[in-house]
Amino acid sequence: SRSCTDPLTKLYNRGYFDERFAEEINIAGKNSIPVSLVMMDIDFFKKINDIYGHGVGDSVLRGFARFLRVVVRESDIVARPGGDEFVVILPATNLDGVRLVAEKIRKELSERRFTRKRIPVSISVGVASTSEGCDTFSCLKKRADKRMYKAKRNR
Questions:
Q1: Beta partners for residue 35, in sequence order
Q2: pLDDT surpassing 60 at residue 88
């Protein structure tokens, strides 16, 4: 069977995320409960790699992955689709709920350092929820993605 985790961070990979998210959207639709998505991108990650090297970049990715697992609920699904992109699927969570979670992640992240170099890490975040009339996989991904890039532009 193909592995469902990313070797570096031990989070779920893109294949598993895509499968699981489709499943959660299906469950949410059947039971008339919302499901939400948080999309995150580490700001200036290329610069971290360029300045400190890929070993430090990898430490940042691993540290951020561990941080994410701790900061979200046990029932939330955390994945790393690739590169410096991370996602969290939040079952039974509406738009207000997912916005609170995104804010909590950003706020708690500002107080953390993941490497011996104590490099501050910030993220751009986008959220989407089926509770805002977006009920397909592609709609939710597109909407969260668009909001994430808007956040990035405002950095």
A1: 91
A2: yes
